[in-house]
Design a protein that fits this description.
- The complex is a heterodimer of chains A (161) and B (553).
- Chain A has eight helices and no strands.
- The mean pLDDT of chain A is 89.
- The radius of gyration of chain A is 18 Å and the shape is globular.
- By secondary structure, chain B is of the alpha/beta class.
- Chain B has two domains: 165 residues, Rossmann fold; 240 residues, Dihydrodipicolinate Reductase, domain 2.
- Chain B is 39% helix and 16% strand.
- Chain B has an eleven-stranded mixed β-sheet with strand order 15-14-13-12-11-7-10-9-8-16-17, with helices on both faces.
- In chain B, strand 2, helix 6 and strand 3 form a beta-alpha-beta unit.
- In chain B, helix 8 runs parallel beside helix 9 and helix 14 packs across helix 18.
- The longest helix of chain B is centred in the N-terminal third of the chain and has 26 residues.
- The chains are: A mainly alpha (161), B alpha/beta (553).
């Protein structure tokens, strides 16, 4: 199932570079949470705003759910990071990235009146860096590269015949 | 598209030779693993970073402590029979804390839960440990209060309206009759201040264990008499400073004892309230009148009243007595008794005592060498005689420190309780924040190395949670400082009043010492009396430790 699309070297290089840096971002976010003793997404969830704030806050207050949410965050970020960097199960990596980024945006939308405990490092109106990254992931998904450069190359090799 | 990527559609059909296969295999491997070195770079970066954090953590390590286990149930199979004397709002909430609420209250908790599914109070109440006790007796001089308490005491299944009741506790019209009842092992006293000491002494003499609300005493002489009675008794006595159960104070004590603050020379603490309830303007019950209230008993014990009047008249303080005559029935004075010295100990007894007891348990201060006070009735023009703004300073010469208490009932701006040491300042309440002083000697090296940022919160602790220190993560610290972190996550939350009463009940069973017994109570009472006298007399009060008496400047 090798993609029929063909890229110039520079196109391929740019797409892979984008895939790797986004992967890097996810992986380190996950690792830093992993190495922080007692890390929890509780504070982040409780600081939610916008349409879905109630939902995210009730998730934060659910003692039974929190360990699960924290684990999904930590290991989700790490796995997505590894998938993107290595070009392993590329599509799954993108879907995971889109899911997490969407949730992050919904809990902390850059809406007109939102003010957060932890102020963002820039100034945003509706569009913030999560949305930019989300769009980048969509681009990567539209132009997959892992079967060229990445573990998917060997994994899916047998199927191509 | 001259550089069109064709390599993948390799000419496998044309090249079958083994050499070409090897080179193709090599190329495949290269393309598969091309991004793998990125992980090496990440591993190196993470290793370096955690190494640096490890060094930082060693600095923070001195702020690491043992977690205290949650209190375990104690039972000897016996049911302890309890009588409650004084069941106004505080008495009723003490009953609720040990598992006995009025059906109306349970209904209200259920209603709150329906309104707001996050309200855990109903669930907490229903799941609260059964202390193996029974309410057998209640005493109140207001019929409505007594009736409520009977229903609460009989509500053994913790049911809402139209529920099943257990056996009704017996109502006694006087506390002396209650103390004479053979089916009472222990009493909880939650009457106005002017009855605390007298009732406690009589209860101990009648062989009952006692839990009494703070302040311990109303007059100075009864403080000594009460100590004498309790020193000669093996019965369990607990003074109602439920803050003894606050987890952070235990941690705060460890921090002070480890010397992490350096020498503490000033402690600042305050009361800030700005609502009628906080200023003791409690509601007056519509059914209250001379027929439903036994005013004669409200007046107080004749011996106590004499001690009070003797002190006031012999020190030229007659203006603080009354202004109503003691035998004149007054609904204001009955429900809002805290506003008049005739029954009350004012800000000193009601709120300074909590602050003092918090600090005393952390620092083991004991009775101060000197006390000065100032203040006045500045906001509430309701005829009260006790001040609504009060400043009291206590000097501890031997400990080389001063304790400053400042209170207002007309502003609720938060002023944190601060322990100010040469090396660091500890703010302590429901959480602890330690900030290192820029001029600290103890932390000089770490400040110079950049491991500690002076002036910024360095250590933060909120009970029931894992330690959070400044080095773990900026975001975590940010949330922790605002008290948002973990509040509901790790560790179950306990009601401190429940814990304090449970400790007393456990001590009845085991014979162990309570955390706020007579020695702690004596410190609390004398210290607050010194503050009160300094205010009333307008001069410094001293403590003669050898003679154990309050002297004047």
């Amino acid at each position: 199932m090798i993609e029929k699309r063909s890229f110039s070297k520079i196109q391929l290089f740019c797409l892979i570079a984008l895939r790797v840096v986004i992967g890097w971002y996810f992986l380190y976010e996950g690792l830093s949470k992993f190495f922080t003793p007692g890390w929890t997404s509780y504070g982040y969830l409780m600081d939610s705003q916008g349409l879905f704030a109630g939902l995210f806050k009730s998730m934060g207050q659910n003692q039974a759910l929190m360990p699960f949410i924290d684990a999904v965050n930590i290991y989700g970020l790490i796995l997505i990071g590894l998938f993107l960097i290595l070009g392993l199960f590329e599509k799954l990596g993108y879907i995971g990235a889109i899911a997490l980024l969407t949730l992050y945006y919904l809990s902390h939308p850059a809406s007109l009146n939102a003010t957060y405990l932890l102020p963002p490092e820039g100034s945003y109106l509706w569009i913030n860096k999560n949305i930019v990254m989300l769009c980048s992931v969509f681009v990567l998904m539209a132009f997959p590269t892992a079967k060229r450069i990445g573990f998917d190359r060997i994994i899916f090799k047998n199927k191509k015949a | 598209m001259s550089t069109t990527e064709n390599q993948d559609n390799e000419k496998k059909t044309t090249s079958e030779s083994s050499g070409q296969n090897i080179s193709k295999g090599r190329r495949d491997a290269l393309k598969t693993l091309a991004t793998l070195p990125v992980l090496g770079a990440m591993a190196y970066g993470v290793y370096k970073k955690t190494q640096k954090e490890h060094t930082n953590r060693q600095v923070a390590d001195m702020f690491h402590f043992q977690e205290n286990p949650a209190p375990a149930p104690v039972s000897d199979g016996k049911i302890i029979r309890i009588g409650i004397i004084g069941v106004g709002s505080r008495g009723i909430s003490l009953m609720q804390a040990i598992g006995f609420a009025t059906p109306e209250k349970v209904e209200e908790l259920k209603k709150e839960l329906r309104k707001n599914s996050k309200d855990t109070r109903y669930k907490d109440f229903m799941e609260q440990e059964d202390l193996q006790i029974k309410i057998t007796a209640v005493c109140d001089i207001f019929d409505v209060h007594a009736q409520n308490a009977i229903l609460a005491g009989a509500n053994i299944h913790r049911e809402a309206l139209n529920g099943r009741f257990g056996e009704m506790p017996k109502r006694y019209n006087t506390y002396k009759e209650l103390l004479a009842a053979p089916d009472v092992d222990a009493v909880i006293i939650a009457t106005p201040d002017h009855w605390h000491g007298t009732m406690t002494m009589d209860a101990i003499k009648a062989g009952k264990h006692v839990y009494v609300e703070k302040p311990m005493t109303w007059t100075v002489p009864e403080t000594y008499a009460l100590r004498e009675v309790l020193r000669n008794s093996k019965l369990a006595f607990q003074l109602g400073h439920q803050n003894r159960q606050i987890e952070t104070y235990k941690r705060g004590k460890e921090i002070v004892e480890k010397g992490l603050l350096g020498s503490v020379t000033l402690i600042e603490t305050s009361t800030n309230r700005n609502d009628p309830n906080g200023a003791w303007v409690y509601p007056i019950h519509p059914d209250a009148n001379p027929r439903t209230i036994d005013w004669k008993q409200f007046e107080g014990d004749p011996d106590r009243v004499k001690e009070y009047m003797d002190y006031m008249t012999s020190n030229g303080l007659a203006k603080y007595i009354g202004p109503d005559s003691r035998d004149k029935f007054s609904l204001e004075r009955f429900f809002r008794w805290r506003c008049w010295w005739d029954y009350s100990t004012g800000l000193s007894g009601d709120l300074l005592t909590h602050e003092f007891d918090a600090i005393n348990q952390i620092m083991n201060l004991g009775i101060p060498d000197a006390a000065t006070s100032s203040g006045g009735v500045y906001f509430f023009k309701d005829g009260r005689t006790v001040p609504d703004v009060l400043q009291t300073t206590f000097e501890y010469k031997k400990r080389k420190l001063a304790l400053l208490y400042s209170a207002t009932l007309a502003n609720q701006f938060n002023r944190p309780r601060k322990f100010m040491g040469h090396d660091a300042t500890m703010e302590i309440g429901n959480s602890i924040t330690v900030t290192v002083d820029p001029q600290s000697v103890q932390y000089k090296d770490q400040i110079e190395k950049g491991l500690i940022k002076p002036g910024k919160p360095f250590y933060n602790y909120t009970p029931g949670q894992k330690d959070v220190d400044a080095v773990s993560s900026a975001t975590q610290l940010y949330f922790a400082e605002r008290g948002l972190l973990y509040s509901y996550v790790n560790g179950k939350r306990y009601n401190t009043t429940f814990l304090h009463l449970k400790e007393w009940i456990d001590c009845i069973r085991t014979g162990k010492k309570t955390s706020c017994g007579i020695e702690e109570g004596f410190h609390e009472a004398i210290t607050s009396h010194m503050g009160t006298r300094a205010y009333l007399e307008g001069r410094t009060m001293y403590w003669d430790a050898d003679k154990e008496e309050i002297t004047r400047g």
